[in-house]
Amino acid sequence: MKKPSIGKMLSYIHRFNQKELASILKPFDIGGGGHHNYLKAILSNPGLNQDQLTNELKFDKATTTRCVKQLEEAGYVYRSVDSSDRRSYLLYPTQKAKDFEPVLKRILDEFSLQMTNCLSESDKQQFADLLKKIYDSKQG
């Protein structure tokens, strides 16, 4: 029997994760494709610009622009021109986003628990450690 590819399994898990999260977050008008990651980053770092957001989340500029636009249209984020660089926008969470933050945290925490409920605590820790080790090796 052929051993499954680690990359393929990670890809399957990622796609499942994104599809399920998109469904859960749809009633809150938060799109799929990692929009929740953008919102979390902006909530954690009010005033960062789109380039910083792109670098922090490891997405491309076009994806960042689309996600920020959608979050802005949904009323979660607003942009302000950077006074030190008029070509750049600083991103801030709205009150709607701040009010939603504990709900988002609960949703993501519960989702993580559901994703890993088949693992023991030691398996979860080992799995997280191994993923971090692989990730760190690619940052070189």
From TrEMBL:
Q: Which domain of life is it from?
A: Bacteria
Name this polypeptide is given: MarR family transcriptional regulator
Record's Gene3D superfamilies?
Answer: Winged helix-like DNA-binding domain superfamily/Winged helix DNA-binding domain
Alphabetically ordered keywords of this record: DNA-binding, Transcription, Transcription regulation
* Residues covered by the HTH marR-type domain: 1-136
